[in-house]
Design brief:
By secondary structure, the protein is α/β, with parallel strands linked by helices. The protein folds into 2 domains: about 160 residues, Response regulator (Rossmann fold); about 60 residues, Arc Repressor Mutant, subunit A (Orthogonal Bundle). Strand 1 and strand 2 form a beta hairpin.
Length: about 230
């Protein structure tokens, strides 16, 4: 998986040669995961001051005020649930936070990538990528650049070609959904992927996708992340 080697004319090798200390805030779903990232960054030749937490959404804002980081690494999953990191991302954007954010994704799933950038992230880092790319990612974002690979960029180009305004949730909520659609929605909110939902319900992935299309249409939503955040608010 290749990342663009140049962004705004600066190659990645030059991005890790600065003597400046970069303050990094790590918000993960567990303390162990955050400390692994901290250990990796402190071994790098770039000087990082890392504040690592296994944390819940409400605690992040308080810790950000204390740390005043240069870059925040925000996991999609936090202690208070799957995709809770997106709720934090959207709230920080509404609060006009100046701290650049890198979303830590479990996979390069299209909806996750798109919603990360829609929420104001300056980069996305997939856990399937080699860990030695993470310091380069942080340095790039700290220098005012974006961190995105060619496949992820293609998702954004495809979105632009069929861009439509984000719809407000239609009134009526859960009563607009059938019993099976409600069940699929709950499983999505629990963080299950389409194939896992299909296996649990004894249906095909194609049928799961059809149910989700109906749910999106009935609620006026446009993505999986929007559905999870809506379900968590109920």
């Amino acid at each position: 998986m290749s990342h663009a080697s140049k962004v705004n004319g600066a190659d990645h090798e030059s991005l890790t040669s600065s003597s400046e200390t970069i303050r990094v805030f790590v918000a993960e779903s567990s303390l162990m995961a955050s400390e692994l990232i901290q250990a990796t960054l402190t071994r790098n030749r770039q000087r990082f001051e890392v504040h690592a937490f296994g944390i819940r959404s409400p605690e992040i804002y308080r810790e950000l005020e204390k740390c005043k980081p240069d870059v925040t690494l925000l996991s999609t999953n936090l202690q208070d649930g799957p995709l809770a990191g997106f709720r934090v991302l959207f709230q920080l954007r509404r609060a006009r936070s100046k701290t650049p954010i890198v979303m830590l994704l479990d996979s390069d799933e299209r909806d996750l990538v798109i919603d990360a950038f829609r929420g104001g992230a300056k980069g996305v880092f997939c856990r399937q990528n080699p860990f030695n790319f993470l310091p380069k990612c942080i340095c790039a974002v700290h220098s005012g650049q974006f961190w995105i690979n060619n496949g992820q960029l293609q998702f954004l180009f495809e979105l632009v070609t069929r861009l439509s305004p984000v719809q407000a949730v239609k009134p009526g909520g859960m009563e607009r959904l059938t019993k099976r659609e409600c069940g699929v929605t709950r499983l999505v909110a629990e963080g299950m992927r389409n194939e896992e939902i299909a296996l649990k319900l004894g249906i095909s992935e194609h049928t799961v996708r059809n149910y989700l299309c109906h749910v999106f249409d009935k609620l006026g939503l446009s993505s999986r992340v929007e559905l999870v955040l809506w379900a968590l608010s109920q």
